[in-house]
Every structure is written in structure tokens, then in C-alpha cells.
Amino acid sequence: MSLDSDIALLKKVPVFCDLPAEQIRVIAFSAEPLTLVDGAVLFREGERADAGYVVVKGTIVLVAEDGVAPVRAGPGSLIGETALILESQRPATATAAGPAEVIRVRRALIQRMMDEYPDIAVRMRDRMATRVRQATAELARVGLRLEALGDE
């Protein structure tokens, strides 16, 4: 992919969409493109997470050992969002389902940008907080549905 197409893709990723064009350009320029063949493992559950991955082409399937249903991530998806700001471990194994392309965004880059541009930290925190609230609300709805089914 070209730098311009990477920039266009990153502008659509919720965590990055509120960032100024100059800062998205820095992320795109510094990101590492990776090409995966069918079945290639991007990372394994339990590994140290030091980067997030934006899916450019293809599909990445995330499977956790705890039996939770697999999650499929397609173009424009950010995998490992938390790893951009916190040191953590991978909660699932990510595998390419067919040929795929991703761009790797290292936590060190995002942390350096947040140090240099404090407004980035605020924007990313606000965007992530919104996504956590939405996920929490959705989990509550699912819990209520499951509870209702159990009462039947």
C-alpha cells in the first residue's frame, strides 16, 4: 500500500479518526506493513503486546483458549487497541484467514506522540472511553437477554 492509502485507512479507524492529518501521517509513515499468507499467525495468546494492527486487506481471526466464539476482523479493524497505550498480554491468537495485509503500529510510537502532543492523549482517551462505554452497554443488553432466556 502507498502512504496515502495508509493515511486514508487510518483516518477511518475510530481510535485515530479524531487526530489531525499531520499526526495520522506520522503514524502511517512509521507503521510497519506486514503481508500474511493463509494460516499465518500474527500473534499468540499470552504473548507480550507491544503494538496494534490495522487490517488493510483480508481477514484476521482471533481465537481465545477460553472458548469464547472467534472474532473476525476485516479491513479497517484495529486489533490490539489496548496495546497502544498499556503494556499487556495478547488475550487471543490472531491468524490470517486467507491472504491478508496489516500495518503494525508500535506502542512506543503512540507513547512518543502522546508525550509530544498531549492533545493526542486526550483524544485517544476520550475515543477509547466512548468505546468502552458502548461495549459495556452492549454486554449489559446481552446479559439481560440471557437472563430472560433463562427464566423461560
- Beta-strand segment tally: 10
C-alpha-based Rg, rounded: 17 Å
CATH topology title: Jelly Rolls
Helix content: 40-55%
Q: Structural class, please?
A: alpha+beta
Written as H for each helix and E for each strand, in order along the chain, the element string is: HHEEEEEEEEEEHH
For the record, the count of structural domains works out to: 1
Strand order of the largest sheet: 1-10-4-7
Low-pLDDT segments, ≥5 res: none
User: N-to-C terminal Cα separation, in Å?
Assistant: 52 Å
Oligomeric state of the chains present here:
single chain
Shape: globular
Level-1 CATH class name: Mainly Beta
Q: Main beta sheet, described?
A: 4 strands, antiparallel
**CATH-level-2 architecture:** Sandwich
**CATH superfamily heading:** Jelly Rolls
Annotation field: number of helices: 4
